[in-house]
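User: Structure tokens for both sequences below?

Assistant:
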Amino acid sequence: MDGVGRVGRPVQTPGLPHPLLNASTPKTGGALPQAGQITLDRTVNDIQGCDFVTDTRLVCVSDDASGTKFPEIRPLLQVDLPHKLDGRPITGAVTSLFALPQRSICTGTFEAEGIDYDVNSGTLRAEVVQPGVCQVSTSVYSYKQQ
């Protein structure tokens, strides 16, 4: 599931099933029905992507460096849903988990770039692009729930 946050407005993110993982999609492609629409209970900035970690929980990466919506800079956000997506609009409760690491030998602006959850290993990966001349390098941080 991917979504882009709009500054200063609640985010509405379409839930779209991934075609390669959806057995009902023809091998040659085809239309995928929208799985649902998620409205967040608070405004967020610069959402770069989200991934489901359970049927009712998403984790999202934000490139928000303003500190106006959450105390953390470039936070990893958790979105809890009251139930599984069922095709109808739903509201998710947003909380900030922590700030993504921003360590580099280079100076400048980092960019939180993406997120991926591997259901087989239970590993969540978040990507952060390095600043300045180091931006040819992306740091991948891996997390596992204990």
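Moving on to the next sequence.
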Amino acid sequence: MSEFYMTPDYGYEPFTEMPGATSEAFGVVGALLGVMAVFYLLILAFGIVSYILQSIGIYTVAKRRGIHNPWLAWIPVGVLWILGSISDQYQYVVKGRVRNRRKVLLGLSIAIVASSVVAGVSAIVMAVAAIVGDSATTAGVGILLTVLFYLAVVVSALILTVYTYIVLYDLFASCDPYNATTYLVLSIFFSVAMPFFIFFSRKKDGGMPPRKAEPQPAPQPVLPVVEQAPAEETPVAESPAEEPQVEENPVEENPVEENPVEENPVEENPVEENPVEE
């Protein structure tokens, strides 16, 4: 019997005849993983750029139109509130209708998040009950709750998508009414183009009424300028500056004794008169 279960000898060894097969397979798999990693990195980079362009566009429109808290355009759930606010403002100013689409969008977002959390918790409870070996009733209730909440998530997401496109049309109509339908259709079928449409329309107000000029203060009356005669300047007597008194030390003058010059008397020689002989 032991010979019956022995491996028959077919005369070849399948794993030794192709020694390079394993290394080539790993090389192909590594190349595919590298290509997939580059592809996902490109998708991630494009998603980040698209999100930044969309946030800049919605933020600029909200700020220019006086929407409160325009910085919410950078928050994933807050951006829906800003979009709804822009749509409500357009409906009220242009068409005279009061809408609360911003509240509807916010409520749908909260419903989706809450339903997703409950569905996830139900799935975890169901898995734990199956591992522990609890009754089939508990597992059935867990499955039912999970399915119901996942259906709630799907329905809420569909309604949220419809409302998002509605408010997006109001945004395009308020910025560029002539191309609003084209932008919306292209955004539905090519969602990657929507952030670029919002970004390039952010400074347009083609569908909005002209803004009211801000009231300026009334000009003040100009009073005539009266030329006044120059005032006569009264001469101010200048007080002489007091010079500091310097105490002079009296210098004792030594009397100079004058030596009397003795005058030598000049003796006059008498001229003898010679008598003239007649």
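User: Anything stand out in the second?

Assistant: Residues 66 and 215 are 17 Å apart (CA to CA).
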